[in-house]
Amino acid sequence: MDDATADRTVPVGDAASRHVPVLLERCLELLAPALEPADAVMVDSTLGMGGHTEGVLRRFPHVRVIGLDRDTQALDLAGERLAPFGDRFTGVHAVYDEIRDVLRRLGIPAVHAVLMDLGVSSLQLDETERGFSYAQDAPLDMRMDATSGQTAADVLNTYDERDLARVLRVYGEERFAPRIARAIVRARTVAPLTRTSELVDLVRASIPAAARATGGHPAKRTFQALRIEVNGELETLERALPESIEALVVGGRIVVEAYQSLEDRLVKHALAAGATSSAPPDLPVLPPTHEPYLRLVTRGAEEADEAELARNPRSQSVRLRAAERVRPTPDHLRRRAA
């Protein structure tokens, strides 16, 4: 997956030809110790077109994978790709903060690994009509689950100027957010915004020429912000991280790939909190109930090397973090999270 908006459209075809999973070998290396048990189960929380799951099923022939995705089209494509693995793969239409509900329905008390590949998927980027790309004219949709919820057009045409500016500033880190929001409100008094090209033109006209000359496409940050707002991505991730950690057995691992700073910050804080004592710093003896329940497996956030970038340009902004569960979460921390 990737947080950037594609500058090209890939022809429709089978999932394997359309999707190169980011940092696959490194993910498999990090997951391997947790997937050693003969009954190992992994949850791919962001299945997409199934590239990471296929890698796991091929590398570890005894492992079962539960794949979650809110995108029904992605589930269909991944299902076709992973059909040769039979009942070792189960696809579920769900958002990843529902992980423990899904496992309860499947009768699985806990899993050995959780993989998250955050952001917008290759499928969503490459399907022009989904409206994720600023490079192609399309309806202003941007829903990861095209069966429900508000669209980007709904946000642009109903939010007041202050809320629009907030979305662009917070989720897109767009320094010209007030100017863009003002232009959107002014334009929609004439006619509702319905097409991505209309939004691109408004954004371009709202950003000074000197600023447009650097930092990539001028609409990149606005499209990112709208996508995050439409899909509630950060709120969902904030719920999903503790739910995913609680789904792990002791010795289980969570591996997360993030593509923009807001996501990576949430991941960093969630994993660091579990790997840090919850006791007051001045206690002379550390009570067992306050000992860390996670061990960080990566040192900081890992990035793609030159070989990975050459193989898969969409890995440019990836930040990879991983942790291992070393003990159950203390009751007082579980209650606080709930």
TrEMBL record:
Query: What are the alphabetically sorted keywords of the record?
Result: Cytoplasm, Methyltransferase, rRNA processing, S-adenosyl-L-methionine, Transferase
Listed GO MF terms: rRNA (cytosine-N4-)-methyltransferase activity
The biased composition feature labelled Basic and acidic residues covers 321-332
Q: Where in the cell is it found?
A: Cytoplasm
Q: Quote a single Gene Ontology cellular component term.
A: cytoplasm
State where S-adenosyl-L-methionine binds: 50-52, 69, 96, 117, 124
The biological process GO terms on file are:
rRNA base methylation
Q: What is its main location?
A: cytoplasm
Q: Say which enzyme class the record assigns.
A: transferase
- Catalysed reactions listed for this entry: cytidine(1402) in 16S rRNA + S-adenosyl-L-methionine = N(4)-methylcytidine(1402) in 16S rRNA + S-adenosyl-L-homocysteine + H(+)
- Chain spans, region Disordered: 302-338
Segments traversing the membrane:
none
Its EC number(s): 2.1.1.199
Signal peptide region = none
State the similarity comment: Belongs to the methyltransferase superfamily. RsmH family.
Query: What PANTHER family does the annotation carry?
Result: 12S RRNA N4-METHYLCYTIDINE METHYLTRANSFERASE, S-ADENOSYL-METHYLTRANSFERASE MRAW
Q: What is the role of this chain?
A: Specifically methylates the N4 position of cytidine in position 1402 (C1402) of 16S rRNA.
What is the name attached to this protein's record?
Ribosomal RNA small subunit methyltransferase H
Protein's gene: rsmH
